[in-house]
Each structure stands twice: as C-alpha cells, then as structure tokens.
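Weekend entry, working from home. Most of the wet-lab plans are on hold until the incubator is repaired, so I used the time to fold the two sequences that have been sitting in the queue since the last round of cloning. Logging both here for the record. First:
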Amino acid sequence: MDNNWLELTDKVVAITGAVGGMGTKFCEEFAKQGAKIALIDMIDDKTEEQAKKLSIKYGVETLAVKCNTTSESEVDAAVKKVIKKFNKIDILVNTAAILRFSPFEDLRLDEWQAAINVNLTGYFLMSQRFGRIMIEQKHGTMVHISTIAALYPETYSGAYSTTKAAINMMSKQMAAEWGQYGIRSNCVLPCLVKTPLSKNFYSDPEVEKGRERLVASRRIGTLDDIANTVLFMASDRSSYTNGGEVTVDGGLNTMISDMIPKPGGRRQYAINHH
C-alpha cells in the first residue's frame, strides 16, 4: 500500500489532550504521516517536550499550546496561536476527557460539573472556535473521541456516559449545520482498549480473560486500533462520512445476546436442539 495513502502530509492537525495516553499516540501517528501538529494540553513542560521530540524525530512542524479547554479565553488564545503559526486548520481531534467513578446517588455536583466542563464544554469550545475558521476556509474535519459508554451506560462512572452521549449528538448537529461549508464531524467510539487510563483494569489476568470473552474478536484493543481509525476518519479517504459514529470495540456491541446464558451454553444448546 502507498505510504501516503491517507494523504495527510502537510495537513494542519490540532489535538487536545495531546500528552495524555491517546493524545500522545495520535500526535505520533499524524507526525509519521507528515502532518503539522498543534499539541494542545494543560501540562506545559510535557507538551513542549513532546512537540520538540516529534519535530526532531519526524521532521515535521509542531506547536505546543498550553490551554485549559474549559476556559473560553484560553481556547480563543490557543486557536489564534495555531492560526498564526500555520495560517489554517485542516483537522481537529478532540481527545481531552476525565472519568470520575461514583454511584449516581453519591455523585457530587462539583464532580458532575467537572465532567461536563471537560468532556463536553471543552469539546464544544474547541469545535466552535476552530469551526468558525473552517467555515471561512470552506473545509475542515473534526474527529471526537467518544466511547461505547455513550450508547450503553457505564454504571458507577458518574457523568461519564452522559457527557459522551452528548458529544455524539453535538457532533451530529455540527455535521448537519456545517456540512454545507465542507466540514465533517464524526465520533470514534472505543471500548475495551488498553490505555493508560484503563491499564489498572488489566492488572489481573483473570479480569483480562473475562473481558476478552465478551469481545467478538476475542482480544483487547490497543492504542494502534484507535489511532488507525482516527487517522482514517481525519483523512479525505472517509470524505463521505459525516455525522457518523465509528465503533472500535472488537465487536463488543454485537455480543449482547451472546451474554445471555442458555442451558449447557449457547452453542451446545443450538447443537442439541438442531
């Protein structure tokens, strides 16, 4: 396959949560493709370090931007820095998110609001501000990291599922309103993927085996699985996909019926009653 099949060379990509587990991976994979990358994160020193590393390793232009995506003024300043440096924006990848575990009856208002601020408002502000520029340009692509938990509630995870479900709808609304300007907005919905955020779930081998049994592909996903999908959705190779939700879960969402027990096991039951 042509190494430039995705045609991302010299595309300007802004990635939020750029030094988080997923964000770091996305930045590297876009850099491998020759894209110009704006790394947006709250962690100043680490963002600068990662930007320099990518620039040296892959010979691409990078920009480190310290920004709290929940702050309107900081988002405005960040967008101005990106446009001043690169003169355009081709792709926005919204990655920054938080997860706070809590039974719903014990969820504090400040925890609820923190999740909404980071997971939803941050996505909104970044999308709106970069979206205005994309409207002027008459082109642009947005990829928002959501989750299967937006469709099936992640119990005892506070406001996480609620905020991610809202992201899915926000993405559809932006696609519906901005598609006429050449802008695409899509969500990527991972689940059962090993990330720095989920690594504790897999410290027990039995837990990992139990999770694998729930997945049609019988394996746990990797950051590569997510990154490959994000790059494809960001590229013009997916140019007729707009307002979509792409699941990256190994077929977990297809396995609900398979989880319902039958006497002797579902396969054996079918054999016995054939």
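Second, folded right after the first finished:
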Amino acid sequence: MRVLFAGLSEKSHLYCQVPLAWALTAAGHEVRIAHSPGLTDVVTGTGLVSAPVGRDHALHEAMSLAPESQDAEIANWSRLGPGEADWPALRERYELSVPHGFALYNDPVLDDTVALARSWRPHLVIGDPIAYAGALAARAAGALHVRLLWCADVYGRARRTFVDLLSQAPVDERVDPLADWLDERGAPYGVVCDEELINGQYTLDTLPPSLRPPSALQTLSMRYVPYNGTAVWWDWLREEPKRPRICVTLGTSNTEAYGGDYVSLSETLGALATLDIEVVAALHPRQRAALTDVPAGVRLVDDVALHTLLPSCSAVIHHGGWGTYSTALINAVPQLALSTTVADLEWRGRSLERAGAGLFVHHSEADAELVLRHTLQLLDDPGFASAARRLRDESAAMPSPYDLVTVLTDLVAGR
C-alpha cells in the first residue's frame, strides 16, 4: 500500500504523524511525507521519506508581527457547536479564516501535492484536519482520505454547525467561503467540494473519548504515542525524585512563531521556587537565553524529551500545546494550562477541568500568585491525580498505531 501524509508544514504537526507513519513503514507499506521545503531536514531526521512540495508559507512572519492575534476571538474554534454561534458569526469566521488561515497554509503546496498524488497514486492519504491540499490530492488521485487530528475536532464540530445554519439562512445570505475556495482550487483537477472532501472518509482521534467534542463523523480511535525528535534518557531521570517534581514548559512552536511566550517565564519560576518542590524547566534555547536570574531549586534543560521527563512528574505547567497536553494525559500527570483560546485550546483545557485532571487559565490572568495557588491545588488535592490516572487508563485502552495499520489496510482494500 502507498500512503501519503499531507499535513500542515509545522514541526509540531509532523511529530503527531511520525508514530503512525513508522507503524505503516514497519508493516512494509510505502510511506511519503509531503511538506513544504523548509521542513525537509526535520522530516529526514525522523528517518521517514521526505517529499518536498511547493514553497514555504509565510504565516510565522505574520504571526510575529501581530502577536495579539493569538487572543483574537476569530481564532477560537472551541465555541462553535450547536447553539453556541449564530449564522452571521459563523459565516464571518469562515470568511476570515479561509483567506487568512487555511489558504495561507495550503495554497503554497496545493498544486504540487495534487501533482505528486496524481503521479504516485497513493492508496491512502492521511492529513491534518485543515490540510485541505491533502484532501484535494486524495480526491484527485482516487485515494482514501483519513484525517489525523492534532487537536480536539473543533473544526469538524464547527463545520457541522455551519452546514446546519447554512440550510436555515435566508437564501440571499447562503454563502460557503470554504466550499467556494475548494471548488476554485479543485476545478483544474475536476474536483468539486463536498462534505466528505472536507471531513475525509474517516477521522483518527487520539484524544480519550471522554474528552472529545460530540461528532457524527466516522471516527477511529488511536492511542497517542509521543514523538519528540531526538531523545535521551538522562541518568538523573532514572532516579526517583526526592521531592515532588514539577515540569514547566511553555513550548517551542509558540516561541518560534510569535517570538515570545504566553506568560512570564521568570515570574512563573520565581513563584514556584518558594515551594518545597523540584522544578524542571524544559526550555527552548531562546527562552533560556532570555532568563537573567534562575531561582535556586530550578533545573533548566533544553535537551530533554517530554516523554522521558513527565513520567517522573507530579504536575506539569504548560502553554496548552497538543504534544505536552497529550503526553501528560498518557502519563497521568495533572496539568495547569496557562494558555490562549486559539484553535481548540479552550475546549481541551475546559474538558480537562471537567474531568478533574487539571486546570485551565487564560494567560492574561496568570500572575505569580495564581500559578502558586493552582500548583498547590494540583499537589495537595489527590482528586487531580486520581482523575489523571482515569484518563491515562482510558488512553491505554485505545488501539495503538500498530493496531491501526490493519484497520487502515482493510479500509483501503474495501474500496
């Protein structure tokens, strides 16, 4: 079987694909990773086969010039379910998101991705939920199209709400910016947009079912398996911590894209240093260089993969990123997310709160006193650890990427 992965050209998104891509490779299938040229070294560093297409997007430059965009309501996809958004608001969301988000990611690689698929003829295309270049390529090549989520499926949920409201809107207001854009981009290849093209035939979801938004899509569960690139199990990680160990990580993607962090790292570390705990701050080199004063009892690391660190932690304080959130879930680590509402961050943060396994705070409210108070909550209330263990067990019961290879092979054969 030939399998083409077509995600957004972001390192964090690629890392979500690696475990399944390697499971398919190890099972003897041919796997190619389509991506923009700037990601070539990252892809080849995973040991997978790189297929550069198109040109690099310029979203990071735009994001660094407008850091306030991470707090814009237009970027929040967590509150777009039935009854949460009216027709004018949801229509505006698509009118702005298509040209200023979806198209900026997809247009630079779309034509080359379709050309690659039509020449190589993959049997299966696995793509991000908003990697519409992959969706068009799958349709143009007659391949099975499966979405692999890096988020709670707020995009699928919003689309279902949009379609329902579209059918009820006044006739002169019935516009569909996403379908119009996909129709225009698919026309040279004889591809017409429909809901199956947007949503794929199937969706692979690595969130535990209890944390997912309601969905009517054909969903396949797959256990989250972390991939962090280069990983070393350092000797100090093999020893039992003498005090409760807290991990602080504010991510790398946000630092690289926006040029800064959601919260003050120095204030966060300063607050935690007053507790009788061990603090491990997993930092990007740029974050480490910006720290002028490191409190006693804080270990700074920039060479530790989270899946080697979090099993020894009593709690994690982070920016809400998918990799950190999911790695904490499978290791039963209570979480304090100091984050924004962009994409699905609010949904995941609030669902974690409802499950009793963590706390979600908008970064604008995250001062030193709040960090201190919430960290003590996570450490002192055994309910957080108990709920985190329930979510870990729920995740562990899901099929592994290895298990999904047979499922995907059977679905392709069934076509």
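Plan for Monday: verify the second prediction. The domain at 2-223+398-414 is CATH 3.40.50.2000 (Rossmann fold).
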